[in-house]
Automatic annotation (TrEMBL):
GO terms for cellular component: membrane. Residues 463-489 are annotated as: Disordered. Belongs to the GerABKA family. It comes from Geobacillus thermocatenulatus. The chain crosses the membrane at residues 277-299, 349-367, 373-391, 403-428. Residues 476-489 have a biased composition (Basic and acidic residues). GO terms for biological process: spore germination. This is Spore germination protein. Keywords: Membrane, Transmembrane, Transmembrane helix. InterPro entries: Spore_Ger, UPF0353/GerABKA_families.
């Protein structure tokens, strides 16, 4: 086993292979002491080093590193003789100060450069009313946004590092005494068991710790809104923040939460419930309308009213393809336009989406490749899919139409029903951090329906969801909340 000094020397030699790693020798002007300073140049904030470190390094009289450590006006400075610790801190933006080139002990001083964008409005989960702050790529800033909203000593943050190469900082956040300890333990154990070399975004964590990694349905809810994370923490859930990612993960989650916009809580409960039901109807419409079109024309045309049947016959009399072909043609065209619009610059992408849809749709009808009725249905299905508040669930909805189309082509409405049974069987077996994914619909928990398909008034939500198994199920006194008292009573 190599001696500590040899290990430190080997570590510095390895870092020295990179041209941005610097080791410079300075001389203290008071004592004449030579000082070795090592650092990775792009990671260092020169202003911090010049103002707070080098004046003491070059002009302050000290005989040991301990004396220098006590004189520096910085909190994050300490002595270390662990080569692995030195290497990690150098990579994070620390200065390594030694009094001799062969010393096995050095002083690590934080002079990290921090470059981050300013707080902006949410782009994916935009709301007309409510807060306009969103997470950014800085873990410290994101934790600040949460602590600002929950100034409680019970708000607990557990820090981890994931990725053998990236060493990405990750925070597990929960409210002690409200969150189920089993959920916290499950999240912590899965994160500690992650075996991957580089984790650069929270999306990696979703795929690495989900209960079923092969499912199309996301089992952790991702959000860019700190107000939403603060709200679910108060319910007893656990949040995961990853350094470098502007999205937080929430678990355990349920299927109905993916169709609930956080703006619902800023509106009157009747209006919010109406919008939530519209979203659920839109999802069902987006998935089933084109498969039902194919099944009906192929197998069940007798179900079509006579007046509508004439319209369908007229629109399809020039079409040389069976319904499944024209449906797939239009569905794939819509997906191509979506991908083109998403990958191109914003202004160009918007133009491609609008102009491309109009031109291709009109041309395909005039050329006799698709019927005008189907074009309307596909356009409505695409529009309905955009009502899904969570982007990742929207991708799932987009993909689910194609299996339904294939089953509809093979067995008609019976195939659609069979495919629906397959999806429901999968959802019934799916879990999020070990909790049922379909809760509170199944297993049925009627008391939790107050914030599921509809949202009842806040005064009716005195208890936390029972599926979370929180140690404190009571949020507030429901009876007192419903009382209306004036100040003069």
């Amino acid at each position: 086993m190599a001696a500590p000094s040899e290990s430190v020397w080997s570590m510095l030699q390895t870092l020295g292979c990179s041209l941005d790693f610097q080791t410079k020798v300075y001389r203290n002007q008071t004592s004449g002491q030579r000082i070795w300073v090592s650092y990775i140049e792009p990671m260092i904030d020169i202003e911090i080093a010049v103002k707070n470190i080098f004046p003491y390094l070059l002009h302050y009289h000290f005989s040991t590193l301990q004396d220098l450590c006590g004189a520096l006006p910085l909190d994050e400075a300490y002595l270390s003789s662990d080569p692995n610790d030195m290497k990690q801190k150098l990579l994070e933006g620390y200065l390594l100060i030694r009094l001799n080139e062969t010393d096995e002990t050095g002083l690590l001083v934080k002079a990290q450069k921090t470059l981050e964008r300013t707080l902006t409005i949410p782009e994916v989960e935009f709301s007309v009313v409510g807060p306009k702050e969103s997470f950014i790529e800085s873990l410290e800033t994101n934790l600040y946004l949460l602590r600002k909203r929950i100034p409680s000593d019970h708000l607990t943050v557990n820090m981890f590092r994931v990725g053998t190469l990236s060493k990405t900082k990750l925070a597990v956040v929960y409210i002690d005494g409200i969150a189920d300890p089993e959920n916290v333990q499950t999240v912590s154990q899965r994160i500690q068991a992650v075996e991957f070399d580089e984790v650069i975004d929270s999306s990696y964590i979703v795929q690495l710790i989900s209960d079923n990694r092969h499912s199309l349905f996301p089992q952790l809810l991702d959000t860019e809104r700190p107000d939403r994370v603060a709200a679910v923490l108060a319910e007893g859930k656990v949040a995961i923040l990853v350094d470098g990612s502007p999205h937080a993960l929430i678990g355990p989650t349920t299927l109905v939460e993916f169709f609930s916009s956080f703006e619902d809580y800023f509106l009157n409960w009747i209006i919010a419930s109406f919008f939530r039901l519209i979203r659920l109807f839109s999802v069902a419409f987006s998935i089933l309308i084109t498969p039902i079109y194919v099944a009906t024309l192929n197998y069940h045309y007798e179900l079509i009213p006579k007046d509508l049947l004439g319209t369908l016959i007229t629109s399809r009399k020039e079409i040389p393809f069976p319904p499944i072909v024209e449906v797939l043609f239009l569905e794939l065209t819509i997906e191509l336009l979506r991908e083109a619009g998403a990958r191109l610059p914003t202004k160009v992408g918007q133009t491609i989406g609008i102009v491309g849809g109009i031109v291709i749709g009109t041309a395909s009808v005039e050329a006799g490749l698709t019927s005008n009725v189907l074009l309307i249905l596909v356009a409505l299905a695409a529009l309905a899919s955009f009502t899904t508040p969570v982007y990742k669930m929207g991708n799932t909805i987009r993909l689910m139409r194609f299996p339904f189309l294939l089953f509809a082509e093979m067995w008609g409405l019976l195939g659609v029903a069979f495919c629906f049974c397959i999806v429901m069987t999968h959802l019934l077996s799916l879990t999020s951090l070990g909790r049922p994914f379909l809760a509170p619909l199944y297993p049925p928990r009627w008391k939790d329906w107050k914030d599921a398909l509809i949202r009842l008034p806040f005064t009716s939500q005195a208890k936390r969801p029972s599926s979370l198994r929180t140690p404190q199920p009571i949020r507030f006194d429901g009876k007192k909340a419903k009382e209306k008292r004036d100040i003069d009573e």
